[in-house]
Design a protein that fits this description.
mainly alpha, single chain
């Protein structure tokens, strides 16, 4: 397998991680911007999330050209036994999904419990309730994204392998 293919896979994994983080930041910003907080919402709160999502998409699209730039000119083959690109992508998606699930499950359960405790003991427009929802949104979004990554790892691996083969053929 060419070294550029491995570097492309790694760059795309980073871009997917950035995309999940950007979506999580977007969800957190949306949770913070409730209709009761201000008559004129500040949409600049979404700027960092949008920038991270755009960077993720840009890195995903440019991963192969970047891989060609950062790898040595002869582009040596690396022996990985019987592993194919599909196998590497499946492993990577499974690893990434497990990482997201395992890194967010404790915070999700903690903030979910806190949110329900606060919801029972406070009034509907209480700022403490809004803060609890805001703190719950980030780990819960990461948990759901990690679960989806685990469930759809083979499908995503097939699609990315096909995309990468089409890029390399062109």
């Amino acid at each position: 397998m060419p070294l550029t293919s491995i570097v492309t896979i790694v760059l795309r994994l980073f871009s997917l991680s950035w995309l999940v983080q950007g979506i999580t930041m977007f969800a957190s910003a949306a949770a913070a911007m409730t209709p009761h907080s201000s008559a004129h919402p500040n949409y600049w709160n979404y700027a960092a999330a949008l920038l991270l999502c755009l960077a993720a998409l840009g890195l995903f699209v440019l991963s192969h050209p970047i891989a060609r730039i950062v790898t040595p000119p002869p582009n040596p083959e690396i022996s990985l036994g019987g592993l194919s690109q599909y196998d590497l992508y499946c492993f990577a998606f499974t690893f990434l999904g497990l990482y997201f699930v395992l890194s967010s499950i404790a915070d999700s359960l903690n903030w979910l419990h806190y949110f329900f405790v606060v919801a029972r003991t406070t009034h509907e427009n209480d700022p403490q309730r809004e803060t609890a929802f805001y703190r719950l949104a980030r780990p819960l979004t990461t948990l759901v994204a990690g679960g989806a990554t685990l469930l759809f790892a083979p499908r995503c691996a097939r699609k990315l392998t096909a995309i990468q083969r089409n890029h390399e053929a062109a």
